[in-house]
Specification:
alpha+beta; about 140 residues
Length: about 140
């Protein structure tokens, strides 16, 4: 179990990789972000993107899944007060393989038994190009006495 005391600024975590499929791009977008360039091949081809792309919210969800699997499910995670900044830097396309990383930038006690950990998360595609990043924070329990 990873506790608040186990984390410190400068620590980096590899979050693993995820292969994005066309089917899931369409499924997610049809349900949550049905813009033409996410759900319609012809409209996407004629858009400034030149083809089908994943919703940014889908990309953020993939990052969250990697973060949960790599860190939060192994930690005394108590939720999050929010994300400070989220940026979609390049389109994510069917067949892309996204790889995540999280770097801790700040750790501070919040209240008895709870600390706040701030950090940056990023996803890069198979070419090593940044597709998304965010600044976020999470609450973590301290080690039981």
């Amino acid at each position: 179990m990873i506790y608040f005391e186990d984390m410190e600024p400068g620590m980096e975590y590899e979050l693993g990789s995820y292969n994005v499929t066309e089917a899931e791009i369409l499924e997610f977008a049809k349900k949550y972000d049905p813009q033409p360039f996410h759900i319609n091949h012809q409209a996407a081809q004629e858009s400034m993107f030149g083809g089908l792309i994943a919703s940014g919210w889908h990309t953020a969800s993939i990052c969250m899944r990697l973060y949960v699997d790599a860190i939060l499910n192994k930690a005394a995670s108590l939720g999050s007060p929010g994300v400070d900044q989220l940026r979609w830097k390049r389109p994510v396309r069917p067949g892309d393989t996204l790889t995540g990383r999280f770097k801790i930038t700040e750790c501070k006690p919040f209240r008895p038994g709870v600390g706040i950990v701030k950090g940056t998360a990023e996803l890069k595609n198979q070419d090593g190009k940044l597709v998304m990043n965010f600044l976020g924070q999470g609450m973590f329990g301290t080690r039981p006495s």
